[in-house]
Amino acid sequence: MLDYAAYIAGLPKVLAAAEVLFRDADGRVLLVRTTYREDGRWTLPGGGVESDTGESPRRAARREVREELGIGTGPGALLAVDWVHGEQRPPVVVHLYDGGVLDGARQA
């Protein structure tokens, strides 16, 4: 009989990420440039969920927004969850949250 630890170790590995959709009053979407990729692509603010520490996707979204934008407000409603396949990494379950409209005070 397979013990529980061996069973868990044999399960597929799936990563989790959280992103936040911010807009301005004109409906333009805020993007940030990645620093961890050579192509410096533009993406929504967000990043990986530190699930090994017990972090939830919502907490990850809050942490990433604070790290990347310096904004301490929490994410709003969950807008979507999607499954993204990667070429050189395991699949990622992405959680997209509403960040709302950035006013002048939150943009500064």
Features:
108 residues; alpha+beta; Nucleoside Triphosphate Pyrophosphohydrolase; four-stranded mixed sheet; two-stranded antiparallel sheet; 3 helices; 6 strands; elongated
CA-atom Rg in angstroms: 16 Å
Q: What is the residue-averaged pLDDT? A: 89
Summing up helix and strand content along with how strands pair, one would put the structural category as alpha+beta
Uncertain spans? none
Main beta-sheet strand count, sense and barrel state: 4 strands, mixed
CATH fold call: Nucleoside Triphosphate Pyrophosphohydrolase
**CATH level 1 class label:** Alpha Beta
- Count of the separate structural domains: 1
Helix share, percent? 10-25%
The fraction of residues in strands falls at 25-35%
User: What is the chain-wise order of helices and strands?
Assistant: HEEEEHEEH
**Order of strands side by side in the largest beta sheet?**
4-1-6-5
Which of globular, elongated, flat, extended, rod-shaped describes the shape? elongated
Oligomeric status: single chain
